[in-house]
Write a structure and sequence with these properties.
Distance between the termini: 142 Å
Radius of gyration: 42 Å
Strand content: under 5%
Helix content: over 70%
Number of strands: 0
Largest sheet: none
Structural class: mainly alpha
Amino acid sequence: MTTQAAAPLPGVEQRLAGIESRLAALEATMALFIEEQRQYREEQRHYREEQRAEQREFRQENNARLGRVEANLTRIYLTIIGLMGTIIVGGIILRVLG
């Protein structure tokens, strides 16, 4: 038995060429998409670094403010205690002299 070679179908070569060109276009599109994604990830990384730096700066400023507020509250507390002591001592002196 001999094998017969299949005759090429009409238009197969053209279809293959069309498929190859579409495949090449798809590969180019994918390469462009991958590059855009890489750039997007790089921009996101840069943005996150900037956000972290701003958060660190904000926390430092906030901690400095809290330190000043704490010092002021301590002064106010001691002033109130001093005034109460003065009023109590003044009341005792008025009772003794009065």
